[in-house]
Amino acid sequence: MDVAKMESMKQAFQTEANAYKQLQADVAKNHTARQQFIQQQQENDMVLKELEMLEEDANVYKLIGPALVKQDPVEAKSNVSKRLEFIRGELGRLDSQLKNYEEKQQKKGQQLAKMQTDIQALTQSAASAVAQA
After folding, report:
1. pTM above 0.90, yes or no
2. Which of these, 55, 78, 59, 56, lies nearest to 70 by C-alpha position?
3. 114-133 burial, b for 16+ CB within 10 Å, e for fewer?
4. Of 85, 69, 89, 88, which Cα lies nearest the Cα of 77?
5. Could you tell me if 48 and 102 are in contact, meaning their C-beta atoms sit under 8 angstroms apart?
6. Residue 79, Cβ neighbours under 10 Å: how many?
7. Of 23, 93, 103, 124, which is most buried, counting CB atoms within 10 Å of its CB?
8. Nearest to residue 91, comparing CAs of 53, 44, 37?
9. pLDDT value at position 1?
10. How far, in Å, CA of 118 to CA of 126, rounded?
11. Three-state DSSP string of 43-99
């Protein structure tokens, strides 16, 4: 009976450990995406500052494929502002997602620690039962 219970607990522990590893991978993926958005935000902030320094009659060009296409400065500022708004929204979404992942990871870690303690206690009781026999 104890052997079957121990195997069952070990299998459950392995399943939970795999889920914990998946959470770690999700956190790492989130960090990577977040870093990319932060870099894009910094680049777009610089572009917006440059556009704000331009005079009203300045020429602004946008690279579309291999060609530079003339663009209205007001439209360019608007596009960059909208892009920044989108990036900030994505960063907010990623932050809340990261918080959720970290909370799940902490709970899963506590659950794994308890399961490991239970397995060790069962192993020790089984070993002492064998020694007494």
Report:
1. no
2. 59
3. ebeeebeebeeeeeeeeeee
4. 85
5. no
6. 17
7. 23
8. 37
9. 45
10. 12
11. HHHHHHHHHHHCCCCCCEEEEECCEEEEECHHHHHHHHHHHHHHHHHHHHHHHHHHH
Give CA–CA dist 115/22, Å, rounded.
Answer: 18
- For the chain, the distance separating the N- and C-terminal CA atoms, rounded to the nearest angstrom, is 16
CA dihedral 80, 81, 83, 88 (to 10 degrees): 140
**d(C-alpha 35, C-alpha 29), whole Å:** 10
Query: Between the CA atoms of 98, 104, 106 and 112, what dihedral angle is there, to the nearest 10 degrees?
Result: -140
Residue 59 identity (one-letter amino acid):
N
Around Cβ 53, how many Cβ atoms within 10 Å?
8
Mean pLDDT in order along the chain per 10 residues (133 residues): 78 93 95 97 96 89 93 93 97 96 94 91 78 70
